[in-house]
Amino acid sequence: xEFIDYYKILGLDKKxxxxxxxxxxxxxxxxxxxxxxxxxxxxxxxxxxxxxxxEVLSDPGKRKKYDAYGKDWQHADQFExxxxxxxxxxxxxxxxxxxxxxxxxxxFFESMFGGSGHGRQTKFRGEDYRAELKLNLTDALHTHxxxxxxxxxxxxxxxxxxxxxxxxxxxxxxxxxxxxxxxAGDLFITFSITPHATFKRLGNDLHTSAKxxxxxxxxxGETTIETLNGKVKLTVKPETQSGTRIRLKGKGFPVYKKxxxxxxxYVTYEVQLPVNLTEEQKKLIGDLQKLKS
Length: 293
What we know:
Low-confidence stretches: 89-119
Mean pLDDT: 83
CATH superfamily of the largest domain: DnaJ domain
CATH class of the largest domain: Mainly Alpha
Number of domains: 3
Radius of gyration: 31 Å
CATH architecture of the largest domain: Orthogonal Bundle
Shape: elongated
Order of helices and strands: HHHHHEEHHEEEEEEEHEEEEH
Strand content: 25-35%
Number of helices: 9
Largest sheet: 4 strands, mixed
């Protein structure tokens, strides 16, 4: 596994304070954010590295392990356990001895994790990676493919229709390589779906509103609305009240990994009152009011 200098990525040295790390991360994250560099693959890769560096250095426990073990920091607990076990097994009569002419921990470390010593190499599973993938609501409407760049490698994935905001999928074996032939970690992708300006998604159902004029609301008629799959003509019943909600069965969002199944679309009518009335129109409305009285 190639060593990544997290301090260098953030433009800091090992003496950096927690506040220094926080400021450096915020500055670089704003500069390299994918939304500001949509077609810059290098910026996207650097953004991932900045996030990874911040995740480790902003956590005191992880930072201590990184400072001590470098690229193998995620295996620090195993290293310490193996060191303790080795020292305990080498103690006789209260006196500690080292085989092979006084083997210290550095040579023990090498022998166990790939050096030239005589110890048995221990296999360790690689670290898991975590990434966030942003989608528009219309992207999640259809099954499609996207290419992700993870640790400098391009990974092409298929995203099923109906994926939900916050949903996590696991790609087995796409995490950090294992140590000494151990299995690779996994990649966990969290999906973040940007809210739509017109449609609100609740589960597999969609909610929207449709404006109708006063005359259509009173007398009935037709109105046409936009859906995520095209236009739909609706029949408005006479005396429809503002806030009336209707359901269009099967016009909602596709159900995740269930072909041919869809939620419903709920449409709420908003009755628009006329403005800039002429004197004649005002008189007619006044006459209508008198009739009602």
